[in-house]
């Protein structure tokens, strides 16, 4: 072979090398196609086996209880001024089409903390009120730990958080000027023309750092320590609940992504939600009127507070978790978001069917 290569003209040697390279690429391509075909065959067989198992279970009468999707209850304990009305209106628009119930939890004086007896009543309603299932409950209520009450079938919690200073600024002007959702409704601070910057400069109570303490206690729940402003324990408990008790927590600044992921995870409720949000109907877009962005000086003054540092730490924690979930669920192409396809399948299902 070595002698043949020496006797072969350089031109033919180059052609031989090229031909060998092409042949190797062809063989590798065929091997890859065979591997892809084998994987597709395995998935097809696995799907067939799953369907066969489900068919046998149905014939054996195993499914004598309602399907899971028909028994689900979602609780959206919405934090004020995080875009919650915009999102909730989508649920109201979808409930007739997707056949679920929407219930507003209206507490006296918008108190987010329930009495012990009201917590028991609420837990009993949510878990046993079959006529309202599947159900979507929403309201400005702190997290309720259903596991404390010995009930079966815990609800699915979701929520949305917002940059703490942006949320406070929005709430400050909302109390004075309302929004475009119900423009005729008289608000509690209507007539007060003082800007947020003027309030911060004067050390007013409506813009004090203590007013930032809201998202942490809403996630922390009904423990007394949750409502002690600046409590490190409350912050850690809020983080724990966010990770362990909530299916998904979005951020106001990326609400479309949040809605898209909910539609993918819970289509029984949110099928069609993304398209509905994109239409830009007035009912889905609620904006506070007369809102003036704060100056850098006002922001810097608030950021000196330990309360802001803790609320911001919680917000950044929620944002990081949301972006982690999104990175494994959504991609962007040509300015449009799209969901990733299912990336798992079942195989080696035993015992085999008869």
UniProtKB/TrEMBL annotation:
> Which molecular-function annotation in GO is an example for this chain?
heparan sulfate 2-sulfotransferase activity
> Could you tell me the membrane topology recorded for this protein?
Single-pass type II membrane protein
UniProtKB keywords: Coiled coil, Disulfide bond, Glycoprotein, Golgi apparatus, Membrane, Signal-anchor, Transferase, Transmembrane, Transmembrane helix
Which GO cellular component term is one of those annotated?
A: Golgi membrane
Q: Which Pfam families match?
A: Sulfotransfer_2 (PF03567)
Chief subcellular site? Golgi
Q: Where in the cell is it found?
A: Golgi apparatus membrane
Q: Which InterPro entries match?
A: Heparan_SO4_2-O-STrfase, P-loop_NTPase, Sulfotransferase
Annotated coiled-coil segments of the chain? 24-54
Family as reported in the entry's similarity comment: Belongs to the sulfotransferase 3 family.
This protein is called Heparan sulfate 2-O-sulfotransferase 1
Which source organism does the UniProt entry give? Coregonus suidteri
């Amino acid at each position: 072979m070595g002698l043949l290569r020496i006797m072969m003209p350089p031109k033919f040697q180059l052609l031989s090398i090229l031909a060998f390279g092409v042949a190797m690429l062809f063989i590798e391509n065929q091997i890859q196609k065979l591997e892809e075909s084998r994987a597709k065959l395995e998935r097809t067989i696995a799907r067939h086996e799953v369907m066969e198992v489900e068919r046998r279970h149905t014939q054996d009468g195993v499914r004598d209880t309602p399907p899971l999707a028909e028994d689900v209850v979602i609780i959206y304990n919405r934090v004020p001024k995080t875009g919650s009305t915009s999102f909730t209106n989508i649920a109201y628009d979808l409930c007739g089409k997707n056949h679920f119930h929407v219930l507003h939890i209206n507490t006296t004086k918008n108190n987010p903390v329930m009495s012990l007896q009201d917590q028991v009543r609420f837990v009993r309603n949510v878990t046993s009120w079959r006529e309202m299932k599947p159900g979507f409950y929403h309201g400005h209520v702190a997290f309720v730990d259903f596991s404390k009450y010995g009930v079966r079938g815990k609800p699915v919690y979701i929520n949305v958080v917002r940059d703490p200073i942006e949320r406070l600024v929005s709430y400050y002007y909302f109390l004075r000027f309302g929004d475009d959702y119900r423009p005729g409704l008289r608000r509690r601070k209507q007539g007060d023309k003082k800007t947020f910057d003027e309030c911060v400069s004067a050390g007013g109570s409506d813009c004090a750092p203590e007013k930032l303490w809201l998202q942490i206690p809403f996630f922390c729940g009904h423990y007394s320590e949750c409502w002690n402003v600046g409590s490190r324990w409350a912050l850690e408990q809020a983080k724990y609940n966010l990770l362990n008790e909530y299916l998904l927590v979005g951020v106001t600044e990326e609400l479309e992504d949040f809605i898209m992921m909910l539609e993918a995870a819970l289509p029984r409720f949110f099928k069609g939600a993304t398209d509905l949000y994109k239409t830009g109907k007035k009912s889905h877009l609620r904006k506070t009127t007369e809102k003036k962005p704060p100056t850098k000086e006002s922001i810097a003054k608030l950021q000196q507070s330990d309360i802001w540092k803790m609320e911001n730490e919680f917000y950044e924690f929620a944002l990081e978790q949301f972006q982690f979930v999104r990175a494994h669920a959504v991609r962007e192409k040509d300015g449009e978001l799209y969901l990733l396809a299912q990336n798992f399948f079942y195989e080696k299902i035993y015992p085999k069917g008869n």
